[in-house]
Design a protein that fits this description.
The chain has about 170 residues and is mostly helical. It contains six helices and no strands.
Length: about 170
């Protein structure tokens, strides 16, 4: 991905640290502290979304849109993991989780979050296609401006060159 100049050039390093933390260092927290693991992952992911929105490191708006959409879906996926862990913990404590969540099981909660993630991805995809189309039209307009010299406001003139004049101009024989 292309980044804006300045601090954003370190964005890739930040991304690698975030991924390493979420995929590796989180597992250094003991398994009996599952909720702590999930809360740490949630804090890291939400902080990433905020930093992404503040820093806006990407040159292309379409790249930025995809990055934000994927980060938001990651946050909501971690929230599903948190809800599942809480539900399981409540069942082990002999507490009725349906009274706490308002659902009979975890599946409706996971389905609701999955549906939300699907909507986010579809909206991001639609905006991505729109952004690509807009960028393509801007690129085409720039190419057309380069072909047509704007210094002369009049329409381009056409002239007829006979074959011998053309051949002479291009140093071809008669």
């Amino acid at each position: 991905a292309e980044y804006k100049p300045g601090l954003a050039r370190y964005w890739e390093v930040l991304e690698l640290v975030r991924k390493l933390t979420l995929a590796g260092f989180i597992f250094l927290i003991p398994q009996r502290l599952t909720l702590t693991r999930i809360l740490a992952a949630t804090l890291i992911s939400v902080s990433h979304v905020v930093l992404l929105l503040v820093a806006s490191p990407y040159k292309q708006p379409s790249t930025m849109l995809v990055a934000v959409a994927t980060s938001i879906t990651l946050v909501f996926t971690i929230v599903v993991a948190l809800l599942v862990a809480m539900y399981n913990e409540l069942e082990q404590q002999q507490v009725d989780p349906s009274g706490f969540f308002g659902f009979d099981g975890v599946l409706p909660l996971a389905g609701a979050i999955f549906g939300f993630n699907l909507v986010v991805v579809l909206v991001a995809l639609a905006l991505f296609v729109y952004q690509l189309r807009t960028e393509s039209l801007k690129h085409t307009a720039r190419r057309l401006r380069l072909v047509h010299d704007d210094s002369d406001a009049s329409a381009p003139s056409l002239s007829h060159i006979s074959r011998p004049e053309w051949a002479a101009a291009h140093q071809l024989g008669p």
